[in-house]
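To whoever picks this up:

The nightly regression suite flagged PBS lyase as changed. Nothing in the input moved, so I suspect the structure step. Input below, exactly as stored in the fixture:
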Amino acid sequence: MEPSEALRRLHEHAEHLDVDRDTVEFVAGTVAAAAAGTLPDALRQQLAHFLRRADADGRDLTALLLADVAGVTALPDLVAAAEVDMGDQYLLHETIDGLIRSGGAMARWLLTDMIGNGSSGQRAAALRLLEPIVEPADVTLLGGAASDPDPKIRVPALEALAGLPGDAAAVTLLVGGLQDQDPGVRAAAIDLLAGQGDPAAVAPLSPLTTDPEPRVRRRLAYALGRLGRDEGDGGPAQATLQIMLRDDDPAVRDRAQAALGEIGGAQAAGMLLAGASSADPRQRAHAAKALARLVDEDPRAEERIRSLARDPDAGVRAAVLSGLATVGDITGRWESLVNALAGDSDVTVRHRVVGTAVHLLPYPDEILILLSTDPSGFVREAAALALSRRRR
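Regenerated output under the current build:
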């Protein structure tokens, strides 16, 4: 590109970005002083200058112009520039994405070269950028990145491999990530395998019920809930979740109950009904929320929910309302239950009634009008806001 055309593009970009005059003139001076063949390198130096000064406007203006002048060969420079986070990275990332879309095979080659030879930050960024355009031919390269000493490299490598759900070698590497020494990597591998939606993933996931990290086991329970929906009643996911109901960590047990509610079926209902009879009020609360998903599948669910609405623990009564609000309902079957809890002695329960009523339609405004005069200002404000939104 000739310097005269570059200057025209510069002023177009500057007008669009609303960059200050001094910055525009500074870049224009660089363009005017450079010969056509040296302009890309001059702009690379200019980009480095703005990065050192943490000047986001100058960086964006120069990056756009460099992309115009150098085309896809500017990709490594812009990826390196994106390593310096100045807060507003949107335009820079958009420019990078545009080069990848238009760059074809050259863009792929540049990304894979960065993955093999770039700095740690460039490698991680290039792995994330490769994900949407990953091909089976990349598996060997990605396998090497998935065993990198740095977990910040291993995670995006696994994310890119997850873009090849039908590739046996890629799936094998994802399964290998479940044994990674870093819990963050193991958690990422769980999510990625579950995200592929293949119930066969339950088998390699199940041994993680004994993972030493509770956060990994919580992620496992969530993943099993996603996979179990496609298994049918009594599948391996439910069996694994049943084990997790006895986990030492209460948050893991809670997540397992929620996952069973998402899966549904007679076996899941039986497990949740048992949890609803637990001596632990937290277990009863999470069972109450999960059972709300099963009222159309198992008549025992509705009966137990109505019983839990009278539980001596206010947290359980509030959980009943949360479950109903999450599921929603248009039959009007819960109106008497909600009305009764609107007179509950606990302020949290009454406040939860407000949030529940707006999700159960058709539901009369009378209960919200009543709560708008509640002794608690916390409840009054919520009810008044809900009424104003319903009347718009």
